[in-house]
């Protein structure tokens, strides 16, 4: 799993590309507090090599909690900007700072 960030000079936006190696998976999405944990509109596209990849735009100077939803199972991004405990979920979530 990996995250890459590209800050735009013309807008206060950061393009974040998510890559998840999940050759056996059928569906992968990025869900978090930025989209009310809804996988619609945040699905990653499966590439021929089995990696799922997608880019989302985020407003700069914010922090977000998120996870990957891989075939219905929540998975943290270990290469994120940290982990944060979430009392509602009763688990840690990955953190994205842009």
From TrEMBL:
Domain of life: Bacteria
GO biological process, one term: carbohydrate metabolic process
Coiled coil region boundaries: none
InterPro entries in the cross-refs: Glyco_hydro_13_N (IPR004193), Ig-like_fold (IPR013783), Ig_E-set (IPR014756)
CDD domains: E_set_Isoamylase_like_N
Domain Glycoside hydrolase family 13 N-terminal: 15-74
Pfam families xrefs: CBM_48
GO terms assigned for molecular function: hydrolase activity, hydrolyzing O-glycosyl compounds
Protein name: Glycoside hydrolase family 13 N-terminal domain-containing protein
Originating organism: Arenibacter certesii
């Amino acid at each position: 799993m990996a995250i890459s960030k590209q800050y735009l000079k013309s807008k206060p936006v950061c393009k974040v590309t998510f890559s998840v190696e999940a050759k056996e998976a059928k569906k992968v999405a990025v869900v978090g507090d930025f989209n009310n944990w809804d996988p619609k509109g945040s699905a990653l596209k499966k590439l021929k090599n089995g990696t799922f990849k997608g880019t989302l735009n985020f407003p700069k100077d914010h922090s977000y909690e998120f996870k990957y939803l891989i075939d219905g199972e929540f998975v943290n991004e270990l290469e994120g900007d940290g982990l944060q405990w979430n009392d509602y979920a009763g688990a840690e979530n990955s953190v994205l700072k842009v």
